[in-house]
Amino acid sequence: MLIIHILGVLLLACIAYLFKKLSLSGMMVAIVIGVCIALGLGLEGLFVLAAFFISSTFWSSYKKNLKETEIVEKDGRRDGWQVIANGGVAAFCSLLFLLTKEPLWIGGFIGALAAANSDTWSSENGSLSKSSPYHILKRKYVERGTSGAISIQGLWAGVLGAFFIAATGTYLLYEVHFNGILMLILLFTISGLIGNLMDTLFGAVYQVEYRCTICKRTTEQLKHCQRKTVQIKGISFVNNDIVNLACTLTGAASGTIIFVLIS
Ligand SMILES: [Zn+2]
After folding, report:
1. CA 68 / ligand 1 centre spacing (Å)
2. Taking ligand 1, which is a single-atom ion, which protein residues have CB atoms under 5 Å away?
């Protein structure tokens, strides 16, 4: 059966590459992550990963022409670092489950993916928001797509995104009675939101930001208007991938802790 699961992973990764949703490095990392998840959590784990990947890719592509693309560093194709930042922690939890058979690592797995999904749904929907988002540390309204800013539309999408993975993951991976399932879904939704909140706060404080010397816009890009940009905030190596890694690690930690507390 494992061979069939791995073939499924290869097929999905190749389709994502052909449709330009993953770069070559992104495809290779996705295959490694998929195999780790197949080994630890089988077909059910892969379904949860697919629920994250397919729904996030959908929201990233949705109304793409209306989104602000000047600010962010990378294009729509996810590269290897982006895939590690979003799926690496979940793959690691899956391997820990394979080695220990402790159900708390399933909690970490669901928490990590719920956080990644919550963050992707909220940033992709938030950038379509009609009103300007509010920056939690600067305490003012800023340009759409800025890290550390929150909009109502993005917040709701984040709640639904966390819930979507919490529900799919709990249903497929935990065999508990009905009341138990509802409780776990609620708690993993909260884990995902905690991860998303960490992403916003960590991004607001530490994520590197540059300013274009020509058009004076704030950006994550090293070059703008064909000129080198100047750093105005954050730590130089803390890009969006590091922030996403903090998000998924926090989601996994909350999922694990919550699971230990209730069991
Ligand atoms: Zn510029």
Report:
1. 14
2. 212, 214-215, 224-225
Structural contact between residues 31 and 9, judged by C-beta atoms closer than 8 angstroms: yes
105-151 pLDDT, tens digit per residue, is 999 999 999 999 999 999 888 878 788 888 888 888 888 777 778 88
Q: Which helix (H) or strand (E) holds 138?
A: none
Distance (angstroms) between ligand 1 centre and the Cα of 71 equals 10
Phi and psi torsions of 128, nearest 5°: -100, -5
Closest CA to 191 of 107, 93, 105, 101: 107
Ligand 1 centroid–CA 201 distance in Å is: 26
Between the CA of 212 and the centroid of ligand 1 the distance, in Å, is 5
Copy the structure tokens of residue 247.
């998000």
- Strand, helix or coil at 218? strand
Between the CA of 69 and the centroid of ligand 1 the distance, in Å, is 13
pLDDT tens track for 45-85: 999 999 999 999 898 888 777 776 666 766 678 899 999 99
State phi, psi for 234 to the nearest 5 degrees. Answer: 85, -170
Domain ranges in the chain are 42-62+79-262
Structural contact between residues 246 and 187, judged by C-beta atoms closer than 8 angstroms? no
Determine which helix (DSSP H) or strand (DSSP E) holds 255, and give its type and residue range: helix 240-262
* pTM exceeding 0.85: yes
CA of 155 to the centre of ligand 1 (A): 29
Structure tokens at 245: 């890694």
